[in-house]
Every structure is written in C-alpha cells, then in structure tokens.
Amino acid sequence: MKFIKAFISIAITLILIWALQTKFGPVPPVGRFLSPADGFWQNAESKHILTTTHLKLPGLKDKVTVKYDENRIPHIFAENEHDLYFAQGYITATDRLWQMDIQTRQAAGRLAEVLGPQLLEVDRYHRRMGMVYGAEKTLKAMMQEPAVRQMVLAYTEGINAYIHRLMPREYPIEFKMLDYAPEEWQPINCAFLLKLMSETLAGGSNEFAMNNILKHFGPQTTNDLFPDYPIHEDPIIPAGTKWDYFKPLPVPKPSASFLAQMNDSAKRMVKAEGIGSNNWAVAGSKTANGYPILANDPHLNLTFPSIWYQVQLTAPSVNVYGVSLPGSPCVILGFNNNISWGITNVDADVLDWYQIKFKDKSKNEYWYNNQWNKTNHRVEVINIRGQQPLYDTVIYTHHGPVVYDNQSQKGNNNDFVPVGDALRWIAHDESDELITMYILNHGKNYADYRRALTYFNAPASNFVFASKDNDIAITPNGKYPLKYKDQGKFILDGTDPADDWHGWIPFDQNPTVKNPPRGFVSSANQSSTDPTYPYYINWSFAPYERGKRINDRLTAMQHATIDSMRVLQTDTYSIRAQDILPALLKYIDVSKLNTSQLAALHLVKTWNKDYTATSTGATLFNFWWLKVYNMIWSDDFADKNMQENYPSMDRTEKLLINEPGSKWFDNINTPQKETCTDIVTQSFQKVVDTLTHQLGKPGKNWQWGQVKKMEITHLTRQEAFSSGNFATGGTGSTVNALTGGHGPSWRMVVQLGPTVKGYGILPGGESGNPGSFFYSDMLKTWQQGQLKELLFLQSPDEMSDRIKTTLTVEANSNK
Fold first, then answer.
1. Cβ partners under 8 Å of residue 313, min gap 6
2. What span, in angstroms and rounded, lies between the C-alpha atoms of 776 and 723?
3. What CA–CA distance (Å, rounded) separates 319 from 474?
4. Which of 136, 239, 124 is nearest to 533 (CA)?
5. Contact predicate 154/55, CB 8 Å
6. Cβ atoms of 127 and 57 closer than 8 Å
7. Does residue 456 lie in a domain region?
8. Coil/strand/helix, residue 224
C-alpha cells in the first residue's frame, strides 16, 4: 500500500511538473512564466538607471554615444550613417522588440504560427490581399537605392545585435506570455511596417456595400443619398485655387459597364469620418517671433506600446528629432535645424475591387479584353501552431490577387461559372517611401521637401511643411491613379480594359499650395480640393468640421505662439453642433415632453457647443443626434448586405435642414407616417429616458467625460497592461478627435527660426515593457493636453540637466 501511495504521489508530481512547463491553448507554461529566474519577475525595471554605461557591439565602425533624457528618450550621436541606423535599430529593439515582432507578423500573415489556429483567417486575409507580395516589391526598390539599402541593412544589423544578446529570462514579457522566442530581423520586415501603415490608412473599402445599395435603391436614389461633394466643405487647398499652372492629361472615359449602372449624371457620396488627423503651418507674418510654426497630431488607434517611438538621430550629415515607427529607420514626423514636416491621411481612392470571370473551375484562365488570359498562382504557406501548415493557393490576374474566389454566377448557357473579386491596390506596387523620409531628415529647404515627395507612393498623405526660410506649404501627396470620375465607387468590371487604371497623375500636378495669402496651410482629412481640380482623387473624405474649426481659428489668429497651437490641438468646440443644433431645436415638439425631458432640453439649449469632459449638454446633443441619424436610416438600410453603410452625416444634416418633408423620415416598419418633427421629438424622448434610467437625474454622471470613457489598450488586450478608463473631452468631429479608442497618437508643435524649438507628447511612454516606469510616464501630461519641450541637442558634449544616462557603444572586434 505504501508503495502504491508513493507511486501515485510521484506520478502526480511528474504530471504537475509537465503541466507547469506545457502550453495549453492561449495560456503560457505557468511554471516558466512564474519562475523567479526566467519568468515575468525578470521584466521589472527600476526607475533609477545607471548614469553611465558602456557596451561593445560587433558590427559598428566607430563609437556611438546615446544620451537618455528624463523620459528615457534616446539622443543618438554617431560618427557615420551606418552606425547611426545600426544604433537606432539596436536602441529601438531594447524598448519595443515584441511590438516590432508582432506587427510585422500581422502584416506578413504569420500570427497563427505563434498564436494558434484562431488567427488563421486573419493570416489568410493578409496573404490574399497581397501584403507579402507588395512588401517583396517594396524591398526590391529599397535595395536599389544605395542610401536606403545601407540604412535598412544597418538598422537590421542593430536589431539583430540586440536579439543575439538576449537570454530567455530577458525576453519581453509578451514573448513569455505567448510562449515563443524572438526571431532574427529581416530587411523585408521594414517593408512590412510600411504595408501595415498602408493597410491602416488606405486599406479600407465600402465598394461591396455600395454595390448592394445601388442594386437595392437604383442609381437615382443612390446618387441623391450619396452625393459626390458635401453641402459644407473647407478644402485643404483653398477653394478658388487656379490650376492653370499645368496642362492636365485627358481624363479617361467611363466604361460601358459603369454607364450601364449609372444611367444619370448625378454625383455621389462622402462617408462619415474615420481616423482623424490634423496638421497645419502658420506663416511668420502671423506668429509672435516672425518665423513659421508647424503643428501635427496624427490620430490613430491608441495602444500600449505607442505606435510611435521618440528619437533624436545625429551624425555629421544629419541632426533630426521626431518620432519613428518601431521597425523602420529614420524619423517619420519631425524637424531638424532647417525644416519641419508632418502628415495626415489623404484617404485617396487607391484600392479597387474587380469582378473576375473564370473559364472553368480550374481558374487557370479569366476573361479580359475579349479573350481568355492566363492566371498566375502563388502558394502561400501559413504555419499554424500545433497544426500542420495550410497551403493556400492565391490566384493572380493583371489586376492583382483574387482575394475572394469561392463564388459563381449564371453564365450565357444558364450554367454556373466561377467568379472572384480581385484587388488592385497601390500597396502592391514597387515603391520606396523610406527615401522620402531620408531626404526630409536631411532636408534644408522647400526644394528638398518637393524632391522628397516625388518618391512617396502610399499611403497618400497630406505633407505639411515649414522652414526657417519662412516658407510654408502643404501637398496632398501620393501616387494617384489616373481614373474617370467615381471609378472604384462600386465594384468594377474585371473583363473591361476601360475599367483599368489608366496611368498616373503626374507628381507636379498633385494639388499643392505654397505661402498662400491667408498666411497658413492646414489639413484635417477633408476634401483635398474644390471640384475645379481636374482629376479624381476620391469621392469620400472626412467631414469638414475639424478643418473648418482649424481654419476659422487660424484665420483669426495673430502673434501666434507654441501655446496657441497647443490650445488649438486640444480644442473641443463642435462645428457639427453649431450647424445642426438649431434645426433640432426648431423641429422638436415641446408639447410632447414631460417635466424631466423639458429640464434636459434646457440643458442642451444653454450648452455652449463645447465637448468638454464636464459638459452635460455635449452628452445630450451627441446621443440625440446619433439617435436621429439612426432612426432616419436604420429601417431603410436594414438589409445586411448594405452593411449599415448609411448616408453621410453631411447628407443627413442637409435632410434635416433643407428637406424636412422628405420621405426618409418615415419609418417603413410602422403603420403611421412619421415626420421630421416625430423623429426629432421621439429620439429626444428616448435618449433622455435612457440616460435617466441608466445614470439617474442630470448631474455628474451625465458629464461627457464620464459617459464617453477612453482607454488605451495593450496590443494583447490584457487589462493589466492597459490604462484603464479615463475621462476626456472631444469627439470625432472636434479638433481633439478622441473617439472609440482613437485619438492623437503624437502631438507635435515646432517653432522654426534661427534656433528651432520643438514640443511634443506621446500618450504613454518610450518603453514597451509594462514593468518599466517609462511605459506610461508621459500619459498624464498627454491627458492634460500639455506638451513637453523636446530636448534637441546639437552635439554629444552639450550639457543639459535633463540628461540622466549616457550609454557609450563601441565596436567589438571579437565577432
């Protein structure tokens, strides 16, 4: 009996040891994760770091000095450019290695090999949409440009120098949680980061929904509900700008299939706002010190770690400060001693879907230009953790990859023939955006700015510029396909050459403005130009409200300072409320409101239209307008194939203000006929009753910041690594466009002049390690809407009490 008990005890012990060292689904091996020697305990860091450290690394040519300031921001000084980008790769990897790894895996369609089969469909989609295909082409272009080739290879060497030094106990905590090890960095990973940004800013599409809307409502109604240019607009290039400085190319004619769908000449849609960003530059004539000021706050998904990494890069040929993308060399947004630049998204129409008709089930041929053409097949091998690899054959036509190929339609002989949807996307084309950043990092004047932009393909971006020469400029810049108007609004006919892209808009004919009479340039993702611009860029841009508010404030501004720009970046006044609230108040039937609803109506009537965190009026207006919007359209767009792709906020505002008798106010699901007054009144009643039920009587619980909470989440979605909810002002239609987990991912203001001064803040910190003080040390400053002066050193010997640590890195000859 004793023997049996001992045997059972030993067996249980062995099973427990095995279980603690084994990964079960998403759970890491608990024993290893909790191990004091190698587990998560090793990731804790002290706030107090040694003031001087030395390091020897193979691969360097000379000494590199890295000065760390109080926020652990590295200021890298090198004797040559190879060592500069080597050190940038090494230093960035010390803080952000897991982020770099997981983001490139996402773009490359390689998540399932470390996270398991639940990510398989995400990987398949990225492979099928041609992310790897496009990255391979971009890498080829990078390697053909000597400066970029040296930069990418040196950056890669630096990352790998750090990886090779790591012991398992030193792995970032996410590697331990997910139970996998970092792999060697490859140059193509730098290209994957660019493709991921293209996907974020220029990878969306609503063509499938719009196609179904067209089928459901017909062209006349579709044209009416989705007009091509909004009733309100304040375009990036000022309205009335003349285009007589170039002779435009002939614009292609619409295809027969397009004309068959759209048998009238009305125009179409602007969709509701997506990811918002702002930038502007103010001429010296409007500033206190007589030199331009530039501001930029790109609004992206807010995460820990931040999408951006602050860095200063200095070598004999360059001295630049700003933010980089972890995994890509150079400064992406920033300034040097001569110029500054910033970026917002253009939202150009550079992604189109084509319906492909195959000859038979083999899909070896497709019909195009009145003949059968050969397809190409690319086998994507997707490794899956714990399972056999998936071999996914992706069909390529001259348009691009066939992302969806499991459909069929009735052919001429009443038989069913296979069809598919092919993707034509600018991100598939050979490009080298890093040369743009390289030239800007080294840039001295407006001529360098213009030369840099000629290399930039995607994602199309509004590049704002300012220089100490007192030049300001803005260019909605990218490689734009030459297309007929609205080409790509709906799914295109893959059999018809007339629906192909017809070449490119010449770079020097991209819309641009330099030193305009009004004394400033700006963008907020709104329309690039007024309708007089001779080329089609897109039918869909962000609404005008943010751009309008920025332009109103800059027009009135004189003797502007850094703080003037900071206040404008954090502005929460609502142009949308200014436009819409009077009409809502006009059509509400107060005789149908009870006492509590009348009290709530008084709150919104006396509201100053500012989305401050403490405002109750903002809460009422926001929910009221959204309720009106949804009550108008949800019944008519209930068909799931239309994907709730409602008409724009702008079109709805026109309906409310100019068309109160419209049929669209009627709810088709009720026997009675609702009017504009019915919808406005009922929506207000419902909103007040719901808020009262959920939050009690109007008071602190109704404040906008309490209702619309924000959280910055970790990339793993682990609550322990996220910020938790916090109160903020702003919304998607205000300059401080905080909404739905999106917001200003980097606020920057740069004062040009004989001595440049930069100010900026990240919503988090430099470190990607949740166990570090520098993981979120800048968050509070960002939440308060403040900026920090950026320490822009001119030499490694420059003294500053903000420098807390000096790292000296020297070449190690013992490789």
1. 76, 84, 88, 319, 320, 321, 330, 331, 441
2. 8
3. 23
4. 239
5. no
6. no
7. no
8. helix
Cross-strand partners of 536: none
Spatial distance between the Cα atoms of 293 and 328, rounded to a whole number of angstroms: 27
Two structure tokens written together for 650? 């702008």
Distance, in Å, from the CA atom of 632 to the CA atom of 678, rounded to the nearest integer, reads 11
For residue 295, being part of any structural domain is answered with no
Closest residue by Cα to residue 685 from 608, 619, 606, 601: 601
Number of domains in the chain: 1
- Residue closest to 761 by CA, chosen among 787, 796, 793, 722: 787
- In 513-553, the DSSP E strands lie at 513-514, 520-523
Please tell me what DSSP assigns to residue 392. Answer: E
CB 440 within 8 A of CB 452: yes
Q: Is residue 116 part of a domain?
A: no
pLDDT score at 275: 55
Give rounded-to-5 percent helix, strand, coil for the chain. Answer: 35, 20, 40
d(CA 22, CA 24): 6
Read off the DSSP letter of residue 428.
Answer: G
* Runs of H (alpha helix) within 354-477: 433-442, 446-453
Domain that holds residue 696: 575-710
Q: Are 275 and 228 in contact (CB under 8 A)?
A: no
How far apart, in whole angstroms, are the C-alpha atoms of residue 73 and residue 158? 18
pLDDT of residue 12: 55
Beta-carbon neighbour count of residue 279 at 10 Å?
28
Rounded Cα distance between 508 and 502, Å, is 18
CB-CB neighbours of 563 under 10 Å: 13
Phi, psi angle pair for 353, to nearest 5°: -110, 140
HSE, side-chain direction, 13 A CA sphere, residue 755: 5
Q: Which of 402, 393, 443, 406 is nearest to 422 (CA)?
A: 402
Burial (CB count <10 Å: 0-12, 13-18, 19+), residue 381: exposed
Tokens representing 695 are 């939050």
Distance CA 530, CA 507 (A): 19
- d(CA 686, CA 627) in angstroms, rounded, equals 8
Whether the CB-CB separation of 532 and 510 falls below 8 Å is answered with: no
- In the predicted structure, residue 7 carries a pLDDT above the cut 50: yes
Dist. CA 566–CA 554, nearest whole Å: 13
Q: 809 phi and psi, to 5 degrees?
A: -115, 125
**In angstroms, what CA-CA distances link 499 with 261, 723, 733?**
13, 48, 35
Q: Which of the four pLDDT bands, split at 50, 70 and 90, describes residue 29?
A: low
In the three-class reduction of DSSP (H, G, I as helix; E, B as strand; rest coil), residue 590 is classed as helix
Q: Cα 795 to the chain's mean position, in Å? A: 34
Beta bridge partners of 339: 467
Task: Name which of 794, 763, 790, 777 is nearest 334 in CA terms.
Answer: 790
What does residue 45 show for φ and ψ, rounded to 5 degrees?
-125, 150
**How buried is 706 (Cβ within 10 angstroms: 0-12 exposed, 13-18 middle, 19+ buried)?**
middle
Task: Kindly tell me the sign of the dihedral angle through the C-alpha atoms of 567, 572, 576, 581.
Answer: negative
For 11, other C-beta atoms within 10 Å of its C-beta total 10
In this predicted model, what pLDDT tens digit does every residue of 769-786 receive, in sequence order? Answer: 999 999 999 999 999 999
What is the distance between the alpha carbons of residues 271 and 541, in angstroms, rounded to a whole number? 7
On average, the pLDDT of the chain sits at 91
Cα distances (Å, whole numbers) of residue 634 to 98, 432, 446, 647, 669: 42, 44, 49, 11, 10
Q: Say if 751 falls within a structural domain.
A: no
Tokens of 669: 């699901």
Q: What is the CATH number of the domain that holds 656?
A: 1.10.1400
Residue 699 has pLDDT above 70, yes or no: yes
- Rounded to 5 degrees, what are φ and ψ at 474? -145, 140
Task: Count Cβ atoms below 10 Å from residue 164 Cβ, excluding itself.
Answer: 10
pLDDT digits (tens, 9 = 90+) for 607-638: 999 999 999 999 999 999 999 999 999 999 99
